[in-house]
Amino acid sequence: MSTLDELANRMLSTGPDAPVALTRRIRLESVEGEDAVIFPPTYANIGYNIDTLADGTKVALIDSVGSQANRMEPIFKDSPYADLVPQITIKAGNNKEISIFEVGHRVADALVRSAALEGAEESLAEKVSHAFEELARGNALEMAKLAPTSLVFGVWDSRGEGMKVPRLINSVIRAYDVSQLHRSATYIPPLMPEDYAEIAGFKKEELEKAEGDPKNPMAKAGFVHVPSVNDPGGIIAKGGIDRNVTINLVALRKLEAGAETETLQRYILGLTLVAATYPQDGFLRQGCLLVEKPEESTPWQVMHRDGRHEEISLSHDDALAFAREASQAFGVGPSLKARFDAKLAKEVLAAAKKQKD
To answer: Degrees (nearest 5) of the Cα angle 167, 173, 176?
Structure first.
């Protein structure tokens, strides 16, 4: 029995000493160095998501829990991970095919509920509804056979019965003790307003009026000077950048499937470990390319309910080998092909309107 097999037995134990979580803190820095400017995501109405703690320290969100999940899940589209899970693809239009691993709300997404299965009378939405119904009864088998990553990364059936499936893996990136910078710029057109007035027949006074107004159509088209002033210009993180990863073993042990509970839990654990240990691409967005600082990162730790923790060795290769064995024992569900159905989409919309009323 491998070390990971032994650890899995402990993690899936229902005894009072069963661990509650696996955790790891990964210290990150910009490829340009620890004092480099990095760019967090911007959000409507607030710009950067920066919180101020009671002591005045500022903490910036670099990548949210949802965004991290959306970066991890697509690995299951490709080799060597594709064999671990059923592949569900939805054809939309003549040329576009979308994998379920690229769909934001997973099996609860409107696209999935608007898809008809190829060569079957039952729609994909009906299979999803049945899986949620079984899950509500305490049987996770159908969901694990249909869309197991919805159990790993969580899903909310907001358009159905409202069931919420908690995430087993929680990952978030934050920067600490940050200072926000700003930037300004001016677009300078290749020709002056009088030149465009002469050669294009534009009215000079309209061009002059448009200068400095980014909402003006002539400014949007690029015919006049447009300044951009005091826009978000990134941050400097004096307190470092951390990616914190947690695997919720309590939620994992709540997944049951009758006589197949153990094999199901080991299967879902394997997928979770693969996703959690995968060497993540650090290119989050323009101006934010991060790499690990191994000397400042912590090893994986097993956390107990009384606060005890123990370090363990957990590599991605070990996780993948465990997941392969667990998937063979469980039996991966069949892959499915579906196509977007306008009639089903209208039914989804009608149901949403009725729910609102």
So the answer is: 140
285: number of Cβ within 10 Å = 14
Q: How far apart are the first and last CA of the chain?
A: 57
**Which amino acid makes up residue 124?**
L
Q: Report CA 222 to chain centroid distance, whole Å.
A: 36
Determine how many CB atoms are found less than 10 A away from the CB of residue 47: 13
Q: What is the DSSP string of 11-65?
A: HT--STT---EEEEEEEEEETTBTTS-B---EETTTEE-EEE-TTS-EEEEEE-H
Tell me the C-alpha distance between 7 and 153, whole Å. 22
Structure tokens given for 344: 């089903």
Q: Interior CA angle at 114 toward 108 and 115, to 5°?
A: 100
Of 51-55, 72-76, 121-125, minimum mean pLDDT range: 121-125
**Residues 300, 22: Cα–Cα separation, whole Å:** 7
Q: Is the pTM of this model over 0.85?
A: yes
Instruction: Return the domain boundaries, the chain.
Output: 3-176+235-356, 179-233
